[in-house]
Specification:
Order of helices and strands: HEEEEEEHEH
Radius of gyration: 28 Å
Strand content: 25-35%
Distance between the termini: 84 Å
Helix content: 25-40%
Number of domains: 1
Number of helices: 3
Largest sheet: 4 strands, antiparallel
Structural class: alpha+beta
Strand order of the largest sheet: 3-2-5-6
């Protein structure tokens, strides 16, 4: 009986090893970025990924820096958060990535609306410049703080 238990254990370990090494289905992550209007250059975490609409795969969840530009429109710089689904958290992440019998697609889609570029009004620029100059001079003319 002892030999039978040992053989069963070896068979079970072998079967588990085959399952884990085969990488059955797995988890595929992708992010699609759309813009209104389409055709804008998309930079994700300081890496140019293409023109919208564009789909890329990703490996991690969290905060992403997004910069989008197109001639004739204001450049958009923002951050977006990708939150992990429940099956991509410990201990389910191991099963979803390596042992799940079918491929799981974790797909996200972000859409950004671009604003048309408007020429700044000259008088507004001059007023803003004067205000900054006044603030800078006031800061420069303050007496130094006494040392303790």
């Amino acid at each position: 009986m002892h030999k039978s238990a040992g053989a069963t254990l070896i068979t079970a370990i072998s079967a588990l090893t085959i399952v884990f090494l085969s990488g059955c289905g797995g988890l595929q992550r992708e992010l699609t970025i759309n813009t209104q209007p389409a055709g804008a250059l998309v930079i994700l975490n300081d890496e140019e990924i293409g023109t919208s609409p564009v789909t890329v795969s990703f490996n991690w969840y969290g905060d992403y820096s997004v910069r989008i530009s197109r001639q004739g429109f204001e450049t958009l710089s923002t951050h977006r958060e990708l939150e992990a689904p429940w099956y991509d958290m410990f201990p389910f992440d191991f099963i979803a990535s390596f042992c799940w019998p079918t491929r799981t697609l974790d797909s996200y889609e972000w859409t950004f609306e671009l604003k048309p570029y408007e020429e700044p009004v000259r008088d507004d620029l001059l007023q803003a410049a004067q205000k900054l100059k006044t603030e800078a001079l006031a800061e420069f003319e303050k007496p130094p703080k006494p040392k303790k």
